[in-house]
Amino acid sequence: MKELIEIQKELKAPKNQYNSFGKYSYRNAEDILEAVKPLLHTHGCILTISDEIIEVGERVYIESTATIVNSKNEEVSVRAQAREAEVQKGMNVAQITGSSSSYARKYALNGLFLIDDTKDPDTQQPEKDSELKTLSVKQSKAIIKAIADKNKTPMQVRNALKGYKDNTAKSVVEKYLNEI
Fold first, then answer.
1. What does the domain layout of the chain look like in residue ranges?
2. pLDDT tens for each residue of 121-148
3. What is the dihedral of CA 82, 86, 87, 88, to 10 degrees?
4. 79-112 per-residue burial string, b: 16 or more CB within 10 A, e: under 16
5. H or E element, residue 75
6. pTM greater than 0.70 (yes/no)
7. 2-121 belongs to which CATH class?
8. DSSP 129-173
9. By three-state DSSP, how is residue 3 classified?
10. Over the chain, what is the mean pLDDT?
11. Using CA atoms, how far apart are residues 144 and 169, in angstroms rounded to an integer?
12. Confidence class for position 30, pLDDT limits 50, 70, 90
């Protein structure tokens, strides 16, 4: 589909959101949709996104499908999945499902429009050692508690730890992360 190729080439979806805990910028599904709408109009295409709930064992996944259709009724679809958290502090069941849906939709859109996330925190150059802070024992205990209470995911914690020097407290948290 030629229109999709052009949209992929023209689309700019900057990371305008900021995660202050992990200290990184990101984009969400809404940012991608906002950037792609004018291009869909220009190229005469329609985009739809649908969700399906899938149970695997006792876990619930949201599978999102992003589909683009041109004026000749040619279509391309991409699917992505996100697993619902069993518990997320401060969220009710509907909010947990909505959060998983947003995440799956974002990655379906990333796949459809070839949005490159190579500048994610995991691929950034490490900071200079002189810029890194030392993690205290008190901070490490708070981090472990946040993970245990499911306030923070292990990935969020790993991203946050990148700003700290290797020390005993950081090693304890890393060991804990590897065990869960």
1. 2-121, 125-179
2. 444 454 555 566 777 777 777 777 777 7
3. -10
4. bbbbebeeebeeeeeeebbebbbbbbbbbbbbeb
5. strand 75-83
6. no
7. alpha beta
8. GGGPBPPPHHHHHHHHHHHHTTSS-HHHHHHHHTTB---HHHHHH
9. helix
10. 82
11. 11
12. very high
